[in-house]
Specification:
Layout: E1 4-5, E2 13-14, E3 19-20, E4 25-32, E5 37-38, E6 43-53, E7 58-59, E8 64-66, E9 80-82, E10 87-88, E11 93-95, E12 98-99, E13 103-105, E14 110-111, E15 116-117, E16 121-123, E17 128-129, E18 134-135, E19 139-142, E20 147-151, H1 154-180
Parallel strand pairs: 1-4, 2-4, 3-5, 4-6, 5-7, 6-8, 6-9, 7-10, 8-11, 9-12, 10-13, 11-14, 12-15, 13-16, 14-17, 15-18, 16-19
Antiparallel strand pairs: 19-20
């Protein structure tokens, strides 16, 4: 794949069943877990730190994934770590943050350096999660800056896994089409 670029000896590593659209570009130290998908026009740079994406996670069109440099001032810097069964909506910006499992990041949301999003969270579209903020498990967060809005319902909690599952099915359909060409 021409869109998986080495940088300083590190090349993106893909587990079994991963789909990366031909228009996405991934540089450097990136690890993507089984059955995950990277959709059109995603830019991911694991150049000055690393990116780790879990299993069954989907990064949708136009999203930007980056990290914070390791340095004397920043210490280990901030890698980008995304858990399992995460849906990252179109045009999201994830920068040096940690996302747990079963999370929905809404379209055009931004999550900044040092932020931690615990398991089972929805970050509403257009929200801004400030640096070093922790979003507690089981809640909807919205706004700029993002604030806890309310507890998630049982249906919303179930939807988090279902959304990720839906994208596994979709990426399998894309892979099947590519294999037929």
């Amino acid at each position: 794949m021409d869109n998986l670029k080495s940088f300083k000896g590190n090349t993106p590593q893909l587990a079994a069943g991963v789909f990366v659209d031909f228009s996405a570009v991934l540089y450097g130290e990136i690890e993507i877990g089984e059955d995950s998908s990277i959709w059109p026009l995603v830019a991911a740079r694991g150049d000055v730190n690393y990116i780790k994406i879990g299993a069954r996670t989907n990064i949708q069109d136009g999203s930007v994934l980056h990290v914070t440099r390791k340095s004397a001032n920043e210490g280990k810097g901030y890698p980008l770590i995304i858990g399992d069964d995460v849906t990252v909506g179109h045009n999201a910006m994830l920068h040096g943050c940690v996302l747990g499992d079963r999370i929905l990041v809404g379209m055009s949301a931004t999550i900044m350096d040092g932020a931690i999003v615990e398991n089972d969270v929805i970050v509403a579209a257009g929200s801004l999660v400030s640096p070093n903020k922790t979003l507690e498990s089981g809640y909807l967060y919205r706004g700029s800056p993002a604030k806890q809005a309310r507890k998630l319902t049982k249906d919303e909690l179930a939807f988090l896994k279902q959304s990720a599952d839906n994208y596994v099915v979709l990426k399998n359909e894309y892979l099947a089409e590519l294999n037929n060409d």
